[in-house]
Amino acid sequence: MNAEEQLMLMTTKTHQHEYVCRGLFERKGALSYIGHLDLKAVFERALRRAELPLLYTQGFNPRPMLEFALPLGVGIDTEGDWVDVVMQVPVNPDEYVRRINEELPAGCRVIRAVSLDEPKKSLMSVVTCAEYRMEAPGITDALLKLFAQESVETTKKSKGREIKVDIRPLLIKPLTSSKPDAAEYMCYAGSQQNLRPDVLLKALCETVGYDEAEASEARITRLALYGGEYPDITSIEGLL
After folding, report:
1. Three-class DSSP category at 143
2. What is the pLDDT of residue 2?
3. What span, in angstroms and rounded, lies between the C-alpha atoms of 4 and 15?
4. 3-state secondary structure (DSSP) of residue 28
5. Rounded distance, CA 26 to CA 23, Å?
6. d(CA 19, CA 115)
7. Which pLDDT score is estimated for 180?
8. Please, are residues 98 and 40 in contact by the beta-carbon 8 Å criterion?
9. Average pLDDT per run of 10 along the chain, which is 240 residues long?
10. DSSP H or E segment with residue 133
11. 143-167 in b/e burial notation, b at 16+ Cβ within 10 A?
């Protein structure tokens, strides 16, 4: 076998049956200040240490096969994000939760999991909506004022340049929060259309005059992710 044939053999992908553990996880505290790739590395390390029957990517640098529903920005806590981990064989969801939580660092844990046999759609492709909570003095009234606007124009970075956008169509509805000085809302999220919290905070300052210093110190938590077309949305848990 010559070198070219060896290369083709190593890079040719054969079908591997995928048994997926879909886990709902949370992160908070210091761990919220790491980037998406670092969070992925945290999960990869925990999964290896848990000695689970992971399915690996093929090629020169095999890695555990896992996919997050929606990348988390730096500084954002979450109470309801999802991650798919692919196994070689079926794994009991409760056993998966127990073993990975023993290896995850403080500030990150899997709350529960379900077992799926070869989902037809990728986890990221099914996300359409998200719920967030922002905590800062006076932010509740500011967000309600923003929802009252017919148009909310701001700028955001896209492909290395600043572009003007109207984010009002991406805001779905305000939600009631039980916390003081907190504003909760639902917005469009995912690969098709996505409203980042930092863009919303920028618009709050520009459109309704919210204090920039308070905005820079706002605590942001992603509460939940959904699939489907609003208003007919559903939990990510069982979407295939």
Report:
1. helix
2. 56
3. 22
4. coil
5. 10
6. 7
7. 87
8. no
9. 52 73 97 96 97 92 94 96 97 98 98 94 95 97 97 89 94 93 97 95 97 97 96 86
10. strand 127-135
11. beebeeeeebebeeeeeeeeeebeb
For residue 204, the Cα-to-chain-centroid distance in whole angstroms is 23
Look at the block and give the residue holding tokens 């999991």. 113
pLDDT at 14: 62
34/45 Cα distance (integer angstroms): 15
Tokens read off for 128: 């359409």
Token digits for 91? 């794994």
Q: Domain 16-120, what fold?
A: Alpha-Beta Plaits (3.30.70)
Written as six digits, the tokens of 201 are 């905070």
| The pair of three-digit structure tokens given for residue 228, joined into one six-digit string | 């489907």
Is the bond into 231 cis (omega within 30 degrees of 0)? Answer: yes
